[in-house]
Amino acid sequence: MTDRYAAYTRLAFDRPADRVLRITINRPEKLNALDSIGHAELTDVWRDVDRDPDINAVILCGAGRAFSAGGDFTMIEEIISDYEVRCRTWREARDLVYNIINCSKPIVSAIQGPAVGAGLVAALLADISVAAKTAKIVDGHTRLGVAAGDHAVILWPLLCGMAKAKYHLLLCEPVSGERAEELGLVSLCVDESELQAKALEVAVKLASGSQSAIRWTKYALNNWLRMMGPAFDASTALEMLGFTGPDAVEGLASHREKRKPVFGPASQV
After folding, report:
1. In terms of C-beta density within 10 A (0-12 exposed, 13-18 middle, 19 or more buried), how is residue 262 classed?
2. For the whole model, what pTM was predicted?
3. What is the mean pLDDT of the chain?
4. Which structural domains are found in the chain, ordered by start?
5. Comparing 41-50, 63-72, 129-138, 169-178, which segment has the lowest mean pLDDT?
6. Contacts (Cβ under 8 Å, ≥6 apart) of 229
7. CA 227, CA 86: separation in Å to the nearest integer?
8. Which of 49, 78, 206, 222 would you label with 260, given CA atoms 20 to 30 Å apart?
9. pLDDT band at residue 1 using 50, 70 and 90 as cut-offs
10. Cα separation of 27 and 11, whole Å?
11. DSSP helix/strand/coil, 12
């Protein structure tokens, strides 16, 4: 592996085929939940991929039985309590989305098990998303007591329509891999036993095709997402504002105590 990936500690790298890089979120003992280091690495890696002359296509997956269980509780607590951490996380949340959108190399995600938080951002923003039938996709922001920032506003209405986006984002209703394909939220759905093989098959086709044609098509199509930049920026700012309020404190406590949250009455929002 080239030195450009040597410093990463939460992501693992291998090359399953010629000019194909596989990135694995590698914290299986925590269901690949992202701590502050993992969040930063998942944000930054797309710049390295974009500059890597030896890579034409990327596969993103999770180690073990999950894709990613979202942000770990320690990181969320730090966002709530520390202004500097909150600012840094806002910048990373913004950059994660734009780095994937602007990465010239096509990205294939292989989604199994829970897919939540920043991991879900990368899974659904991938150019081709392949989900196992048993995958469980959840945008859990409002359950945590904060606005659905990250990728939700920029992406979900485009993929599955505003009505379905509001239903799943406002209520945090989970989506199986099969249902996600029906909604248009993912590109393909396969049996879990076929997931890695299908993702590799797609990546090999992308890696062996006309790179100028594929990369320029991706760039042009992603202008649909770039046009939603102002809405996305508002959503991430409102998410971070939510972390300063009491609902985020209660949301985190309810997750830790494995109970339903009890949110107070709304103030002037």
Report:
1. exposed
2. 0.95
3. 96
4. 3-256 (3.90.226.10)
5. 63-72
6. 154
7. 26
8. 78
9. very low
10. 8
11. strand
Q: Output Rg (C-alpha) for the chain, integer angstroms.
A: 18
| Tokens 């209520």 found at | 171
pLDDT higher than threshold 90 for residue 226: yes
pLDDT of 70 reads 87
* Residues 199, 111: Cα–Cα separation, whole Å: 10
Helix, strand or coil, per DSSP, at residue 58: strand
Tokens of 224: 């649909």
First to last CA, the chain: 50
Half-sphere exposure of 189 (CA within 13 A, CB side): 18
Helix (H) or strand (E) holding 229: helix 229-242
Q: Give the span between the Cα atoms of 15 and 106, in whole angstroms.
A: 15
**Residue 179 CB contacts under 8 Å (≥ 6 apart), including other chains:** none
The dihedral built from the CA positions of residue 50, 51, 57 and 61, taken in this order, carries a sign that is negative
For the record, the structure tokens of 5 come out as 């990936």
| Cα angle for residues 177, 179, 183 (degrees, 5° grid) | 115
* 269 closest CA partner among 241, 249, 235, 250: 241
CB atoms within 10 A of CB 224: 12
Q: Are 97 and 146 in contact (CB under 8 A)?
A: no
Longest dimension (CA), the chain: 56
Sign of CA dihedral 196, 187, 105, 228: negative
Please provide the size of the chain in residues: 269
Which residues partner with 21 through β-bridges? Answer: 58
Task: Give me the amino acid identity at 220.
Answer: A
